[in-house]
Amino acid sequence: MVAFDDYLRFGTDDESPKGDTSRRAYLWTAELFTRSLNGRELTPELAREFIKEL
User: Fold this and answer.
1) Would the pLDDT of 22 be above 90?
2) How many domains, the chain?
3) What is the domain range of residue 6?
């Protein structure tokens, strides 16, 4: 999650950094997703299921 936070905070050559509020929202959503896995292996299907529930 630290690498994702760094990506959001500093951006890349192609993307600008995210503001504090957006960054916290992205991190919160990523943390929720990680917890929803509940030990299961990450798959595209699980990601789609999670996004539908947002």
Assistant:
1) yes
2) 1
3) 2-11+18-53
